[in-house]
From TrEMBL:
Coiled coil: none annotated. One of its GO terms (molecular function) is nucleotidyltransferase activity. The keyword Magnesium applies. Keywords: Magnesium. It comes from Sphingobium xenophagum. Signal peptide: none annotated. InterPro entries: MobA-like_NTP_Trfase, Nucleotide-diphossugar_trans. This is MobA-like NTP transferase domain-containing protein. The lineage of its organism: Bacteria, Pseudomonadati, Pseudomonadota, Alphaproteobacteria, Sphingomonadales. Residues 28-143 form the MobA-like NTP transferase domain.
Length: 261
C-alpha cells in the first residue's frame, strides 16, 4: 500500500507588506483574491482532492486571518487540514516541524500562490519524485514560451536550457534533513544564487558559472554530496511555473482559469 503524502502549503507573510495584499485590502497575501476567491483556496483544493495526499498542513504565522475570512474558514475545520505556526524562515520552520516527529514522509511542499496547481501536475510530480530523498519541480523556458510567450519569469541557465522554479518540492525521507539544514544556513542569501550554489562545493559552483552542468546532472551531483538521491522533475505543463506573484501574473492566471472553465 502506498504511503499517503503529507502536503505542506506555505501560507505565511513576509515582514514587508505584500503589494497584492495591500491592493486587495487583505491582511496577508494568501487571502488576496484570484479568479473570484482567496488564492490559497485553489492549491488547497487541488491537494485535498488528490488521491495520493493524506493531509494538508498549512504553515503560516497564524490561522486567525483564515478563520475570520468566510471564504477560507472552511480550511480551519476541514478534517484533512491542520494549521502549524511558521517561524522566521521556511527551512527553520520545516525543521522545527520535523523535530516533533508527527509529520510523516514523504512530504510535498508548495505555496499558497500556486493558483494553477492541478491534478495533472501533482500526478507527474509525485510519480517522478517517488523513490527520491529530495526532488524539485522546474519548467524549461521553451515549454513556457511555447504557450505563453509574453510571460516573464526568472531563469537559471544550464547546459540543458534555461529553467524556472515551479514551487513544488519533495522530501521523500528523513535523509532530506541535511539539505533542509543547508537551506536554513543560506536562506538569508536566497536572492544571491551563486552563494547558494557555492555552499554545495567548488565543482557545482564552477560548473554552474561556466554552464558546464545540466540541471538534472547538477541536482543529482548535489544529492550525492549529501549521500542521498536528488532528482529534477521537468514539468510538462507550462502553467507549473506561473504563480500569483505580481499583478501581471494574476491577469494571466485569471485568463487561464477562465479558459479552463
Amino acid at each position: 500500500m502506498t504511503t499517503p503524502i503529507t502536503a505542506i502549503l506555505l501560507a505565511g507573510s513576509r515582514p514587508t507588506p505584500d503589494p497584492l495584499a495591500v491592493a486587495a485590502g487583505v491582511a496577508i497575501k494568501p487571502l488576496a483574491p484570484v479568479a473570484g476567491e482567496p488564492m490559497i483556496n485553489h492549491p488547497a483544493r487541488a491537494l485535498l482532492v488528490h488521491p495520493a495526499v493524506g493531509q494538508v498542513i498549512i504553515l503560516t504565522q497564524s490561522s486567525a486571518p483564515f478563520a475570520a475570512d468566510p471564504a477560507t474558514a472552511w480550511l480551519t475545520t476541514h478534517p484533512q487540514v491542520r494549521f502549524e505556526q511558521s517561524g522566521a524562515g521556511i527551512a527553520s520552520s520545516l525543521l522545527a516541524l520535523l523535530e516533533r516527529g508527527d509529520v510523516p514522509f514523504p512530504i510535498l511542499l508548495t505555496t499558497a500562490d500556486h493558483v494553477l496547481l492541478d491534478s495533472a501536475m501533482l500526478d507527474q510530480f509525485t510519480q517522478e519524485a517517488a523513490g527520491a530523498d529530495i526532488a524539485v519541480a522546474m519548467v524549461e523556458r521553451r515549454i513556457l514560451l511555447a504557450r505563453y510567450p509574453g510571460s516573464r519569469r526568472t531563469w537559471l541557465k544550464f547546459r540543458d536550457g534555461w529553467w524556472s522554479g515551479a514551487n513544488i518540492f519533495w522530501f521523500g525521507s528523513d535523509r532530506a534533513r541535511s539539505i533542509i539544514a543547508m537551506w536554513q544556513e543560506v536562506e538569508q542569501d536566497r536572492k544571491k544564487g551563486w552563494k547558494i550554489v557555492s555552499a554545495f562545493g567548488p565543482v557545482a559552483l564552477i560548473g554552474t558559472l561556466l554552464r558546464l552542468l545540466t540541471l538534472r546532472g547538477g541536482i543529482a551531483r548535489i544529492g550525492r554530496r549529501f549521500g542521498l538521491t536528488a532528482r529534477l522533475v521537468a514539468m510538462e505543463k507550462a502553467e507549473a511555473c506561473i504563480d500569483a506573484d505580481k499583478p501581471d501574473d494574476v491577469v494571466l492566471i485569471e485568463r487561464i482559469v477562465a479558459a479552463r472553465g
